[in-house]
Amino acid sequence: MKLIIILADARRKRDDAKRLLVEGIDPNQQPKEQKLVEWAKK
Question: I want to staple 20 with a disulfide (CB 3.0 to 4.6 A). Which of 14, 25, 34, 36 is the partner?
Answer without folding.
Answer: 25
